[in-house]
Design brief:
This protein has 780 residues and is an alpha+beta fold. It is 60% helix and 7% strand. It has a five-stranded antiparallel beta sheet with strand order 8-7-6-5-9, sandwiched between helices. Strands 1-2 form a two-stranded antiparallel sheet. The chain has a two-stranded antiparallel ribbon with strand order 3-4.
């Protein structure tokens, strides 16, 4: 809590800046009430205030009560709170006075045999006189304390409390500050219920707040409108008629569809011209994923918050959820960029019309199509966070709590982030974004400094702070490789959104200074803080018990199709003994190395020098890699595909698996696709099929232009059909493909044969009578 004295000095210099000191007091009192040991720096700052300000003595008495349970200390603290309130009012520190009022009520309410009637009357008068100058964060805390002690409020004073809350709500309604409006409407609803008063007017006001905000926001963002309407349905479901709920949901769906088409380009790298996009189909896929995932994230957060009783803990778990970040290796494998990178260099065009050449063979580069995968995830997460804030599930106090756990931010960085949060909470997204982006970098630098990893580099004249892009590259082992690529894509890379550099140089497009980028930058700031200073957060929260993580291989059929490519050969694969991890070993025909892929929901790629290695040599190399990369499982059950007879045996198994009926005839394309699942690429499969046919192990035919591999009974039907006059090979294959078994063919009557495409009444009659009688026939 090293910022305590700094915030106090700021309040003394400018009473309008007292919010920061009030926030530090809130943290300090929470720590004391929670019986936490105050840090040495906090003690030092309190000692510097001693004799100059009353806070040190007040803290001593609070510790005497909350830790040592000395009643005299509690009585003395109550007297000191009165002095502190008077002092704050003399200095016009409205927020600080509110904090002292709130803590005094909490202290006295916790004393057995004492009520807070007088304190609540005094704070009510205080709020009535200055509520327009007070911060909502501290006013709402006082109202919550009043609700908790409703029995100590006489009826006439209850009416005054209701009028106070209504006045605050009306002021925010007039200013179209909907987050704050709904905070007070929720408190008014809770207060009236505690007093057994009618709440229908509050419920109507809540519904109207969402309707009005959706109409105002529509001019700026249809996606934002969709989220507001969905939040309205979620919070006001019991106040809406079935028809209203249906209409709001339909309106939200239409707004999202239209917004996806017109606004989703905001999430692409400022309209970079990248070869290989199939924009419309990919955009539709992104939109569908975004709509589904938004609701998943919202429901998941609410569940974790309810189960743990802590919104801060739910936010901590969300920040450590690996599925929120695109997997660059899966993206590369899905387009086999590992292969084409050897053949072409990618060219992109920046918004300033500069041609940028990128070498995709660099595994630290941003993959092709990364923006489309990132767009879906970023939209879903940003919209979910926006809805959680709108619905009151994610509050300022939850976010402030995360910021302060590690105690790593400098006073200036924390002050700027506090201002940014307040701007975001008031829906001032552009000012919030312009505060968040530069202080993401400040957060990273402060945190690295606090954990003993200064973000500086040596130059000829001494040292200088590393550039942010360099921090992401050099710190990939700290951030994690996947998250480091995401951060580069979003903030510093010319291949990506380049948000930080565009904002810094005045090149950010106005449409991109939106709510989505503001809330996502806040989330990245929190995630970087937690990731880089993991020890403090693990010590406070423990290992997260619930996260949003991609599913592992557990209890799934082995599918190697993602790793199968014409130019590479899978020589072996395996699963860990716990069943969660898939390991794939593949030789690269363009480079002298063997690739190792480890898939435990997210794919990691490692290189082994050389090709043509023996199985023992490969296993030894994997054992050595495991020393540096603990995600490689200790025990792996291998299946090897490095010998021709194993490949032929595997292809035979695939044919058998795809032969669903005795007279079935799976197509060659079907066999090729299912062979990929087993790790055999198309070229190898075609070669294996040719060898099996040459050795008379299989027979191939052609049905309507498709090559098929018929089963024995299918061949028998074909041979019998060709013996019938007027049935050539083309029609005979159709007949063979029509029946599931030879017995069904033998039992078929004229009507059954006539159902075969191309078989008319005459041929059907001959098939029904002559199918078992060989004769000399000529093909029509």
């Amino acid at each position: 809590m090293v910022r305590l004295l700094d915030a106090f000095d700021r309040a003394r210099a400018d009473p309008g800046e007292d919010f920061h000191f009030a926030l530090q007091l809130d943290r300090l009192f929470q720590s004391v009430e929670g019986e936490e040991e105050l840090g040495d720096e906090t003690r030092l700052h309190l000692n510097e205030m001693d004799g100059e300000y009353l806070l040190p003595e007040l803290v001593d008495n609070l510790e005497g009560w909350y830790i040592d349970h000395t009643f005299r200390s509690a009585r003395d603290a109550l007297d000191q709170f009165e002095d502190a309130i008077a002092d704050a009012e003399d200095h016009e520190w409205v927020n600080i006075a509110s904090q002292y009022q709130y803590r005094r009520i909490r202290l006295k309410a916790g004393l057995q045999g004492h009520d807070v009637t007088n304190e609540l009357e005094e704070v009510l008068e205080f709020l009535e006189n200055c509520h327009t100058d007070d911060s909502p964060s501290f006013t709402t805390s006082i109202i919550e304390a009043a609700i908790d002690n409703i029995d100590d409020i006489p009826d006439p004073h209850r009416d005054r409390w209701i009028d106070l809350i209504k006045k605050n709500a009306d002021a925010y309604r007039t200013d179209n500050r909907f987050n704050q409006l709904r905070e007070y409407l929720r408190l008014l609803h809770e207060f009236k219920r505690a007093c057994d008063r009618d709440t229908s007017d509050v419920e109507t006001a809540l519904v109207d707040s969402y309707r009005r905000e959706a109409e105002l926001v529509e001019r700026e963002s249809l996606l934002q409108k969709a989220d507001i309407l969905q939040s309205g349905v979620a919070e006001c479901a019991e106040y809406l008629s079935d028809e209203q709920k249906r209409d709001w949901k339909q309106e939200a769906l239409q707004a999202r569809r239209t917004g996806t088409e017109t606004e989703l380009h905001e999430l692409n790298p400022d309209d970079l011209d990248v070869d290989g996009f199939e924009g419309e189909s990919l955009q539709q896929a992104v939109a569908e994923e975004m709509e589904h995932n938004t609701q998943v994230y919202v429901d998941w957060f609410k569940h974790v918050k309810q189960a743990s009783g802590s919104g801060s803990y739910a936010l901590y778990c969300l920040a450590l959820s690996s599925s929120l970040i695109p997997d660059p290796n899966k993206i590369r494998l899905s387009t086999e960029e590992f292969v084409i990178s050897q053949l072409v260099s990618r060219r992109i065009i920046s918004p300033e019309a500069h041609t940028l050449s990128v070498d995709p063979s660099d595994t630290e580069s941003i993959p092709n199509n990364y923006s489309h995968y990132a767009a879906g995830k970023m939209s879903s997460l940003g919209n979910a966070l926006y809805r959680l804030i709108k619905e009151g599930h994610l509050t300022l106090s939850h976010i402030f709590h995360i910021f302060t756990i590690g105690d790593t931010l400098s006073p200036d960085t924390e002050a700027f982030l506090t201002d940014a949060l307040l701007e975001l909470h008031e829906d001032n997204h552009r000012p919030a974004l312009f505060l968040f982006v530069p202080h993401l970098e400040a957060t990273i630098v402060d945190t690295l400094q606090s954990v003993g990893r200064p973000a500086y580099t040596i130059i000829d004249d001494g040292t200088q702070q590393q550039l942010l892009g360099g921090l992401f590259i050099d710190g990939r082992d700290l951030f994690g490789r996947h998250y480091a690529i995401y951060l580069r894509y979003r903030y510093t890379s010319r291949e990506g959104m380049n948000l930080r550099n565009r904002l810094s140089h005045g090149q950010l497009r106005y449409r991109n200074a939106n709510y989505l980028n503001a809330v996502l930058t806040l989330f990245d700031t929190l995630k970087c803080l937690i990731t880089l200073n993991s020890a403090d957060y693990l010590n406070y929260f423990g290992i997260p018990q619930q996260t949003l993580s991609p599913s592992t291989q557990y209890d799934q059929e082995t599918d190697l199709s993602l790793f199968t490519d014409l130019n590479k050969q899978i020589i072996g694969y395996g699963t860990s003994t716990d069943g969660h991890t898939l390991v794939v070993i593949r030789e690269n025909g363009h480079e002298d190395h063997t690739e190792l892929f480890v898939d435990r929901g997210r794919v990691h790629r490692y290189l082994i020098d050389g090709t043509g290695l023996t199985r023992d040599e490969i296993e030894n190399e994997i054992d050595q890699l495991r020393d540096d990369y603990p995600n490689i499982p200790d025990s792996i059950d291998y299946t090897w595909l490095d010998q021709n007879d194993l490949i032929l045996h595997t292809i035979t198994d695939v044919i058998d698996d795809q032969t669903a009926a005795p007279a079935d005839a799976p197509t060659q394309d079907t066999i090729i696709e299912h062979a990929k699942v087993r790790g055999i690429d198309e070229s190898t499969t075609r070669t294996a099929l040719r060898r099996l046919e040459e050795s008379d192990d299989i027979t191939t035919g052609e049905i309507d232009g498709e090559t098929v591999v018929p089963a024995d009974e299918c061949l028998n039907i074909f041979e019998q059909a060709t013996s019938v006059t007027g049935i050539g090979e083309t029609l005979a294959w159709r007949v063979a493909n029509h029946f599931d078994s030879e017995q069904a063919f033998l039992d078929a009557d004229q009507d059954a044969f006539q159902a075969v495409p191309g078989i008319g009444p005459d041929r059907a009659d001959r098939l029904a009578t002559d199918r078992t009688s060989p004769s000399t026939v000529s093909e029509e």
